[in-house]
Specification:
With 285 residues, the protein is an alpha/beta fold. The protein is 40% helix and 17% strand. It has a single domain, classed as Rossmann fold, CATH 3.40.50.1820. The chain contains 8 helices and 9 strands. Helix 1 packs antiparallel against helix 3.
Length: 285
């Protein structure tokens, strides 16, 4: 049975590779760190908005060295070789949910026990997996459940408004613009893509209020100096899950800079290097 499940996982991985067409950059493609056999535990890692699987390459390698199979899928509309591509504006919550389901189908064949982790938008997907699927563990790292400057009670209204007006792109760094690192990520974000993430976050919160998470070992990790996503929304989700009796732990990183993408080694190399072993332990502990 294990051989058949592992073979099915390889077929699923082939389908992910087929999605990485010519317009997808070499550094933007899905990553697999595979021992050539089914392992006791397999890891599924989701990157953040406008980033790519390469964001997780150090963490993925470290988990692989610990004996696990690791899959880091490319999220929909990400990873284009043209960093100024407008593809991100076409990303939808439905595409993200489909990618989550397809990725879970793959990783189930790679290991007996499944752990899912993600950063920012990927952290939201990890939380969605925890809500709907029984896993060994889920780790939501700085999950995108809201924006720091928007009260959570206005999240749904803001989402509707943002999707009703034309999409706009903004620079992550208005000074460096297209010159900013990393080259495997987009230098701009889309207002429609943000809204689609908020839409999925609202669906998750509604589901969490209605029922306990299917995964009972969850870690929500936040940067106490986070400048972009809402820690308040992440803590609210943790509280709702805890009220259902789930084993949910909040990990507060108090020694990180006032910055969002703290795991990207091409952007904050010293911070990412210092944080890497801590995140590996959280995911694999």
């Amino acid at each position: 049975m294990n051989d058949a499940e592992y073979a099915a996982a390889q077929e699923g991985l082939a389908r992910f590779r087929a999605r990485d067409r010519a317009e997808i950059g070499e550094l933007g493609r899905s990553l697999v760190f595979d021992h050539g056999r089914r392992t006791r535990r397999a890891m599924l890692l989701f990157h953040g908005l406008s980033a790519s699987p390469a964001q997780f390459v150090g963490i993925a390698r470290a988990l692989h060295e610990r004996g696990h199979n690791v899959f880091v899928p490319r999220l929909p509309q990400h990873g284009r070789q043209d960093r100024m591509s407008a593809a991100l504006a076409a990303m939808t919550a439905e595409q993200l949910k489909a990618c989550l389901c397809d990725s879970l189908d793959v990783v189930r064949g790679l290991g007996d026990e499944i752990s899912v982790a993600g950063f920012s938008l990927g952290g939201l997907l990890a939380a969605c997996a925890a809500q709907s699927v029984p896993l060994h563990k889920a780790v939501a790292i700085v999950p995108f459940l809201g924006l720091i400057w928007v009260p959570t009670r206005l999240r749904e209204r803001l989402t509707r408004f943002a999707l009703q007006i034309p999409n706009r792109f903004f620079w992550w760094d208005p000074w460096l613009r297209e010159r900013q690192f990393p080259i495997h990520g987009y230098p701009r974000y889309s207002t429609h893509a943000l809204a689609q993430g908020l839409k999925l976050a609202q669906e998750l919160m509604d589901a969490a209020r209605a029922a306990p998470p299917a995964t009972h070992r969850v870690i929500v990790a936040i940067n106490t100096r986070e400048p972009a996503v809402s820690n308040r929304a992440a803590l609210k989700l943790a509280t709702v899950w805890q009220a259902h009796g789930a084993d949910v732990r909040v990990e507060r990183f108090r020694d990180l800079p006032f910055a969002h993408d703290v795991i990207e080694p091409k952007r904050y190399p010293d911070v990412a290097l210092r944080l890497l072993p801590r995140l590996v332990d959280l995911i694999d502990g």
